[in-house]
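Summary for the funding panel

The consortium committed to producing paired sequence-structure records for every protein in the target list. Below we show the first two records in order, beginning with the earlier of the two.
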Amino acid sequence: MIPFTKAHACGNDFLIVTEDAAEGCDWADLTRRLCARNTGIGADGIEFFAWTGAKAGRIKLHNADGSIAEISGNGTRCVAAWMAEARGFGAGDDVEIATDAGVRVCHVNGISKDDGFTVEVTAGMGVPEFTPRAVMLADGARIAGVDVSTGNPHFVIVVDNAEFAVQGKSWHAIGAEICVHTDFPQQTNVEFVRVVSANEIEIRIFERGVGPTTSSGTGSSASATAALALNGCVSPLTVVAPGGAQTVEWGGTGTELKLTGPAALIARGEAW
């Protein structure tokens, strides 16, 4: 039996499994089985964790389809919440989490035990890199956007309508095509951004290896990068996804972006 903890950040849900518990397993196969919504536990991915110090650990992320991702901002915050609960950390504590995109420092702002175990976390998301570009679709449509790296790849498209449609097509359809476009040999996450005000944007997310998701930490960070750098928004910026709001603070090119939002532990169990 394999012990797991289930956690979510704004509905973006993950299983946390220690490397020791998964020893001898094929992690990709295990992830596909456990993340299946109808025949497994259900999740957007598994964070495989190992402690490396008193307040430090490392994670390896597999998406729901078994593929490996460099990092998830929401998944990293979920692991920070799990670490806080496991070791009794509290407000003011920092934990270091090594990911395939580098070490991320997560600051515990506060903990609520009113309804489960919820931690408000500010995570350092690294220094984003961005480049405006366009992608040509199979039907010849040219889609303008911004390549953003937050340790993993994103293509951010700014829209001007509440349906997040692009050139008359649904964001789901555009996201599915761009995600696997030949311009992105490793595939890419795709975000659709509607500017609500200088201090708020609304987004939709088509996540590599998962599909549409209610939230994404790196997606929120990438969307904010494009909005702050190129679309007249100002920091701190509220990023509203279907699963809830997160806050991004960024001082501009060459500085680290910080993401703040909740992460909640919601279940524990064992799986075959």
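The next record, for a separate protein in the list, is shown here:
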Amino acid sequence: MAKKGNIIVGQSGGPTSVINSSLAGVYKTAKERGFHKVYGMLHGIQGFLDEQYVDLSTQIHSDMDIELLKRTPSAFLGSCRYKLPDIHENPEIYEKIFSILDKLNIEVFIYIGGNDSMDTIKKLSDYAIVKGHRQKFLGVPKTIDNDLALTDHTPGFGSAAKYIGASTKEIIRDALGLTYDKAMVTVIEVMGRNAGWLTGATALAKTEECEGPDLIYLPEVSFDIEKFLKKVSELLKKKVSVVVAVSEGIKLEDGRYVCELSGGANYVDAFGHKQLQGTASYLAGFLKHELGCKTRSVEFSTLQRSASHMASRVDINEAFMVGGAAGKAADEGDTGKMVVIDRVSDDPYMSAAGIYDVHKIANNEKTVPRNWLNKEGNYVTDDFINYIEPLIQGDYQPFMVNGLPQHLVLKK
């Protein structure tokens, strides 16, 4: 049998608390399947173009290191938001990429990321086929936004949802203790540009001992600020504490982001995405001015994607599973594909790794079905809760040193 060459793996886009579990899955499977070396791109395809990479065997020395890596948040290898141009726009970039791949004797290129990362896999695999290059290209799903097509859900989403649900409960308890002499409205801002999966997760806070948020607004439904004002006003006649959850990407009917009303969303990234911030702050100020009530805004920001101390066991295990499945699929000859998570059973919950053509996934966005929101568009239904609850189950305790979690750190 011919000796196998090498694998290279990179991470791209916004990180999650379990993205490194997928990296661990790629590494472990590649070594078990006899690949010679496993390289890691430093800062994704952008760093790779500058020939920034590391031999992962110099970073991972034992099974204990793999377990530590699975519990380490953020992108261990470093990430990027780099849009690979179309082939006809800049063929020199593709020639450079493949010359580096050949120099390193790379057989398999694996990219862990979201929608934009799958676009990179699509372009590279297409180029390889047209030009007759031998390398295989596989995508591993990653995004707390849960907006990748054809996969039941994405690694990173379950842990972010767990953190959001728990934190929302704590915010609700906190608010109840601050409303002795004056009613208060708390507006929670959650990540989500066009898909409201994460914001919907605030409904997990509704339990036997907690009412949960009073209102939930997702970007899938146009936001009517006057109806919002009326609804909050009605709620304040019945209770002293009102808690509202909003996606950062909620829009008015005319297409403007709510955060733009306060002058936000001016910065645009390489993919043309506006940077959204200030939605909760604007709405809290608006309510204070219109109703004269006490208000506050809470923005989870990067905490929702980096809180590995609250990672879901289901999420970490599935992230590891899809990383390993990508290495296996490439070894068996697949290319231009993304590994997906198929839900096999709800009760008991079971999942398995599948694989689909990346062309059917890249640049397609999965949003929350309209029938998973109520008629008014200001709360999620039981179908949404039943979908999300299995994904937050179990814990993966960090390795604690002096009372704080220990992480694996890249040594350059």
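Regarding this second record: The longest strand covers residues 337-346. The domain at 6-152+308-377+393-405 is CATH 3.40.50.450 (Rossmann fold).
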